[in-house]
Amino acid sequence: MSESDAADWAERLQANREEKDRFFAEHPQSPIPPEERDAFESLSYFDPDPEFRVEADVTVHDDPEPVEMETTNGPPVRYLRVVTFAFELRGEDCELHGYRQENPEHDGLFVPLRDKTTGQQTYSGGRYMEFEPEKDLDEADTITLDFNLAYTPFCAYSDTFSCPLPPEENWLEVIVPAGEKTPEEA
């Protein structure tokens, strides 16, 4: 990444974080309980780090297998494993799977994950990434996974939300100090 590309990326990431902080502080659908919003200042984030933007090779599953995910507060939910991303991170070969609900309302990919920061620097239930591919993904494609965009699910802030827990196949054996930290770190 060139120096100007890195600066543009960091600026976009900072704008994304500021927009999210405003949503959490002000929006009626914020997961922060209304009585706590006046005291809310900002989510806690790891510093932006381009090391955690990786190119991943895509494997598309033409006949997606169902995966049942446990949730934090309620019955399991069923997703379809539609893609697998293979990449290298911190010298380790890694894989994450992207999912869609069986009857999706949009074409986005849901990538729940755990890593070696889970339960310590990040939320014990894992974190999420989401992608809106600009086109249908093919076997020959690569996609940029930006762990700086990994976020904490709403259930970390309020028991009124039920969130899917990352399945074991999406547990990374590396430390990924990127994205949002646990709410207790704020």
Description:
- The longest helix is centred in the first third of the chain and has 24 residues, at 3-26.
- This protein has one helix and six strands.
- It is globular.
- It has one domain.
- The strands form two sheets. Strands 3-2-1-6 form a four-stranded antiparallel β-sheet, with no helix packed on it. It has a two-stranded antiparallel sheet with strand order 4-5.
- The model has no long low-confidence stretch (mean pLDDT 91).
- It is an alpha+beta fold.
- Residues 9-25 have a biased composition (Basic and acidic residues).
Features:
DUF1684, alpha+beta, 6 strands, single chain
**Which residues form runs of ≥5 with pLDDT under 50?**
none
Number of separate domains:
1
Number of helices: 1
Q: Which class of secondary structure composition applies to the elements?
A: alpha+beta
* Main sheet specs: 4 strands, antiparallel
Number of strands: 6
The portion of residues forming beta strands comes to 25-35%
Secondary-structure element order, N to C: HEEEEEE
End-to-end gap: 30 Å
3D shape = globular
How confident overall, as mean pLDDT? 91
The residue fraction in helices comes out at 10-25%
How would the blueprint of this fold be written?
Blueprint: H1 3-26, E1 53-69, E2 77-89, E3 92-101, E4 109-113, E5 127-131, E6 142-146
Antiparallel strand pairs: 1-2, 1-6, 2-3, 4-5
